[in-house]
Amino acid sequence: MRAGMVRKWVRAFEDGHVNVHDEERNGRPCVITEDLVQKVDRKVRKNRRFTTPYFSNDFPKISRSVPYGIVTEHLNYFKLCSLWADIYADGTQKLETTNERIRIRQMP
Length: 108
Fold this sequence. Notes:
With 108 residues, the chain is mostly helical. The protein has one domain. It is built from five helices and two strands; from the N terminus they run ααααββα. It has a two-stranded antiparallel ribbon. Helix 2 (34-46) crosses helix 4. The relative contact order is 0.09.
């Protein structure tokens, strides 16, 4: 951290500012809303083998990286055998899912 930034914070605290978080300011609003998160969650549950372009048709006004961020950061899904699975699944559930995928692929 630069010394200039530390001096700036010291001056701010000496002036009576006690909040260490950024103050609200004008700028670009966040596009991730609770409604959008729910829509993406429903879409993922319908097709767990989605790709990023899969969301482009349904959400044309947002960039391709936003749905991916929602899936990984807000919904806590992770990639498992080319499917998106809940990150809170325990180890046995992950192993069962993996074994099931392998068994299905080996079927004639």
